[in-house]
From TrEMBL:
Residues 123-229 form the TonB-dependent receptor plug domain. It is a multi-pass membrane protein. Keywords: Cell outer membrane, Membrane, Receptor, Signal, Transmembrane, Transmembrane beta strand, Transport. PROSITE patterns: TONB_DEPENDENT_REC_3. PANTHER family: HEMOGLOBIN AND HEMOGLOBIN-HAPTOGLOBIN-BINDING PROTEIN 1-RELATED, TONB-DEPENDENT OUTER MEMBRANE RECEPTOR. The keyword Lipoprotein does not apply. This is TonB-dependent receptor. It comes from the Bacteria. Gene3D superfamilies: Carboxypeptidase-like, regulatory domain (2.60.40.1120), TonB-dependent receptor, beta-barrel domain (2.40.170.20), TonB-dependent receptor, plug domain (2.170.130.10). It comes from Nonlabens mediterrranea. It holds the Pfam family CarbopepD_reg_2. Residues 1-19 form the signal peptide. It is found in: Cell outer membrane. Belongs to the TonB-dependent receptor family.
Amino acid sequence: MKKIILCSMLLLCYAFAKAQSKTTYDINITVVSDENNEPVLGANASIKSVQKGAMTDINGKGIINNLEAGTYELTVSFIGYEKQTVTAVIPDQLDYRFQLHEAEGELEEIIIQSTRSSRSFKRTPTRVEFIGGEELIEKTAMNSTNIAMVLRESTGIQMQQTSQSSANQSIRIQGLDGRYTQLLKDGFPLYGGFAGGLSIMQVPPLDISQFEIIKGSSSTLYGGGAIAGLVNMQSKTPDDEAELDLMLVGTQALGVTGNVFYSARNDKWGMTLYGSANSQKEYDPDGDEYSNLPRARTISLNPKVFYYPSDKTTLWLGLNGTFDDRKGGNLDAIDGNNNGYLEQNISRRLSTQAVWDTQLTDHSSFQFKNSVAYFNRELLIPNMDFKGNQVNTFTEVNYKTNSIKSDWVFGANLYTSSFDEDAQINERDQKDTTIGAFVNNITDLNDNWILETGLRTDFTTDWGAFVLPRASLLYKSDGRFTSRLGGGLGYKIPDLFTEDAERLNFQNVMAIDKNELVAETSYGMNLDFDYGFAITDQINFSINQLFYLTAIDNGLLLNSSATNPGMFEYSNATDFTLSRGAETNIKFSYKDFKWFLNYAFIDTQLNYLDGNPQKPLTAKHNAGSVIMYENEKWRIGYHNLCA
């Protein structure tokens, strides 16, 4: 009996000791940012040696469960911040607090140039959509010929074809015609007026480092033409390490594109050189003997020279040249074998850019920029030859100053445009000059609220003066919720070169009558909400919801002339063009998998017509989905879009 009791006690002691050796512990993790100790939602905490981890909640807290006693390497990471690793000794310490520091070069530190401030992405009240980095590389690989692929991927943006024969395209932001969107490159206006019809098709993307898209009135920042918004493309600049990119792309639509980009820099000098050549054979996939894509030959060359006289001053000069020849229509006519329909566009562009940028003090800078652009285009269709030259100039000076909580920008610019039609009779020449002055301010009201205000006054010859205020307000919560509310006024002076005239190949379109027409004016506003949270320890969710409204008064219309049969003349609309809608962008992430969903509701009403009809060729509903897997070595994805 004693032996049985003794054995039982030994077994109990062994079981107790065994249980003690398997005691587990939970460690508590808190993650905050180094700016103001705000909790970081969605930070990953992991211990690779035991394959355990957690994701922080809205309070910046997470728990890693069931750890045995021992020493572990605990790592915390979050996009835009430097990774941190500490040695965790269990059970000596069960609570760990991390204060993450922002990483250089990540999304949060990207400076948005289009708002004219030196603020980072997350501290800008104006709503800006950013495309850069790997996403831009991906879109460039899909279409290295032009920027249409990049732009059409943004929710609420449509690329509208204006010519079936030449495949010309125009950008539509939130249902409004392309002439209401300002295209910029490095802050310079691109391809307005006569040069606008082929603009999207003649901007290759390989030398661009980032796209910045502002939807809604931006005329206060950049003057007339930015009623629907603006697209600013920032070029690559030379770095200490030389860069060489070569790309050769072939398509099933019988197109071949070659691109080369080179950049290099030393202490005082730098350079970039970009060249592109595209050859597109006429493409007829449906066999109707009519080209869906034209025969096209395009060559572009863009060298830039940079001079750095000191650490605080940069001077750069650029030259851009493009030659483009497009033939579309009946296949036999393209080959020159019969008199079938043939549409040919021959265009030449040559432009210069000059920028002097100097840091006056630690908190102020001065910039001067100038551009001269020459554009020649000849449009040939049966029984008509429309050709002419356009010369644009742009000059601007601006002064920036900033303090801990406030940024100021003061500036003035001069813009001229001169179109000279090469015709025997009924020339439709245009000359316009605009002088403008502007001021913009961004102020941190407190830790949660940031206010941006701006005011521009433009004086245009023949059309008068325009006063354009704007304001935007940013709210940042202590968690992952942000909201932006903004609005402003805009204007657009009448111009011969609209999408309606382009579709008519400018045939029988009468000149702008400055005695009968007035400038278009607009007001617009937008409101968006952005929120993200962790559904589980490994599944993260974020949503951005935008609502917008833009109203255009005295819209420019092209209609049949009542006094000149067979001709078309411009007039002002008697009521508003009203564009309103919503955009939804949703993102799910699970480890290396990402799922993006987007939806756009676009309601563009023509109130000057009976029944307030929807604008033609504008899809009211657009939806898209992208599923993607990516790791450090490769990526694969599937994209679907419907309208």
